[in-house]
Specification:
This protein has 116 residues and is mostly helical. It has 5 helices and no strands. It is 84% helix and 0% strand. The two termini are 26 Å apart.
Length: 116
């Protein structure tokens, strides 16, 4: 689990860094991938890192319940981060000629904002 957490953190940090440093990646459809990278990074840092020690060390019942709640909430948030990517790919497949319209961009940003 430790190696998985570290590799997830490194890979998602590279994605976030490339989005920040490279101007051509700052397109609207890349925003959905950035959202997924950030949510994966949060899952790696808080979801795996908090849950692991609680299981291994056997802390109090309250701490166990809090860690399960945090882990579940972060995992659901991570799953919801895939929805804007699915929507983007659906529009690109079903309506390829109308893909670059403004309304698509606004909907995509609203979805990402809602999930945050």
């Amino acid at each position: 689990a430790v190696v998985s957490t570290q590799s997830t953190g490194v890979v998602n940090s590279v994605v976030i860094g490339s989005f920040v440093r490279t101007r051509k990646y700052r397109k609207n459809y890349h925003l959905a991938y950035l959202n997924l990278a950030v949510s994966d990074l949060v899952l790696a840092i808080f979801g795996f890192s908090v849950r692991g020690p609680v299981i291994v060390m056997g802390t109090s019942r309250t701490m166990c319940q809090v860690s399960v709640l945090m882990s579940t909430a972060i995992t659901i948030w991570n799953l919801l981060a895939v929805v804007p990517i699915s929507y983007d790919r659906l529009i690109a497949t079903v309506k390829p000629l109308r893909y670059n319209e403004r309304s698509h961009t606004i909907r995509l940003r609203m979805m990402i904002g809602t999930f945050w």
